[in-house]
Amino acid sequence: MKILAAAALVLPLLAAPAMAQQFPKDFQGEWIADGDEPSVCKPGAFDRMESDAILKVTARDTSQIESGCQLKAFKGQTFGAAVRLSCSGEGSTWQVNEVWSVRKVAGRTLLITANAKDNRISVLAKCE
């Protein structure tokens, strides 16, 4: 009986690291660089290949027309989240470490990403 009780406590702890990270719902969806072709930015635009400027974020990965990334780590913080991605496209692979934040500004939902490696900040508007 004691062995079963111990196993019931330990097994969930062993399984926890194996569970995949996920983007929260407010990060998921289709996003377009602010100012790029807003007329095509409607849900489903990525799958219809209406613009190569759209970023699609699902629970566990991101996709653009010529590349994609798998989420490796998502750690929420006060100002947003630290995001680690493993990416590939056009025969290359690379790792990405960024800070992501979703904010409402003037009635629009924006995804702001910052990458310290190349001093890049991107602002994308949600396709709604």
Helix tally equals 1
Structural class: mainly beta
Number of domains: 1
Please state the overall shape, judged from the principal axes of the Cα atoms. Answer: globular
Uncertain stretches of 5 or more adjacent residues: 1-19
Number of strand segments: 8
H/E element sequence: HEEEEEEEE
Q: In angstroms, what is the radius of gyration?
A: 18 Å
What is the percent of helical residues? 10-25%
- State the major sheet: 8 strands, antiparallel, barrel
Q: Cα distance, first to last residue?
A: 54 Å
Average pLDDT value?
83
Across the major sheet, the strand order is 1-2-3-4-5-6-7-8
- Work out the strand percent: over 45%
Task: Tell me about this structure.
The protein is mainly beta and 128 residues long. The protein has one domain (20-126). Helices cover 11% and strands 49% of the residues. It is built from one helix and eight strands, in the order αββββββββ. It has one helix spanning 2-15; strands at 29-33, 54-57, 61-64, 67-77, 80-89, 92-105, 108-115, 120-126. It has an eight-stranded antiparallel β-barrel. The longest helix has 14 residues, at 2-15. The radius of gyration is 18 Å and the shape is globular. Residues 1-19 have low confidence and may be disordered.
